[in-house]
Every structure is written in C-alpha cells, then in structure tokens.
Amino acid sequence: MSSFNLEALTVLVRRNVFKRMSSTEDLVLFHGGCHCGKIRFQVSTTPVVDVYNCNCSICRKKQNLHFVVPDDSFKLLQGEDNLTCYTFNQHKAKHLFCKTCGVQSFYKPRSNPNGYGVMPHCIDEDGPVLETNVKYFDGKNWEKSIVNSDILAKSEKR
C-alpha cells in the first residue's frame, strides 16, 4: 500500500495539473522555451521521460540533460530567426540556442538526427508535470556507448 503524499498533492492542485494516471504510452503536449521567451516550442511525449546525462565535451560543459523525441513530436512555434547553431568535430549534432539569452532549449543530437533533444528544464512550469528518469550516457566513448544505449530508439515514430 502506498503512502499519501499531501505535499505532492498540494503542489499539483496549486499548479492546477490533473495528470492522467494511465499508461505512460499516452502522449501529453508540453510547451516550453528559452529564458527571454523569443524561442517557443511544443513537444508531444509520454508524461515520464528518460533524460540523458552525457559526459561528452560539450554536454559536460553545458550540463546538457535532455530527452529525445521523434521529429514529428516536436514543433517550433516561434523564434526560428532568433536561433543560432553551433557545431564541432563531425558537425552532425546541431546545437541550437537563442541569440538573445543564450539558452539551448532543444537541439538535433548526433545520436538521433531524426529527432530532437529537448531540455526538461525548459518545459513550462505552469503546464502538465513532466517526470524524468536520468540515464547516464558515456559520450566520451560515443562509438562504444551508442551500441549499448536505448537512445537510438527514442527518435523512432510512435
């Protein structure tokens, strides 16, 4: 029998969030953006996502925690003209960030060119609750790690 958590219930009521307690395969529409608000997006995903904590050179420097969704689950709502892109090494990953505030809300990962890496901390706080499970990815040894990781499947169409 699970215990009742009054504090968690209070937070949900205050935020006026009514999360469906059914299958995690049900998709929920989340909205998010950068700090200054010039970049806005929406993403459809399950209410519980696997967030990857990678130790490659750029992810380590940026503290790039992200979850991956297929291309068709992500939509840029505004700010395309305010995005700038940084690439390095093989130039496969497209690190997109706001020209004004510098926040990276999402990017095109090397591991998932058919998807987007979305930063859970850029999801709006006044919307549905996004729960996260953090997984470690050894990006320093990318070629070896990608073979054993489930990250490739994350950008497959649902």
UniProtKB/TrEMBL annotation:
Keywords: Metal-binding, Zinc. One of its GO terms (molecular function) is metal ion binding. Pfam families: GFA. Gene3D superfamilies: 2.170.150.70. Belongs to the Gfa family. PANTHER family: CENP-V_GFA DOMAIN-CONTAINING PROTEIN (PTHR28620:SF1), CENTROMERE PROTEIN V (PTHR28620). This is Centromere V-like. It comes from Paramuricea clavata.
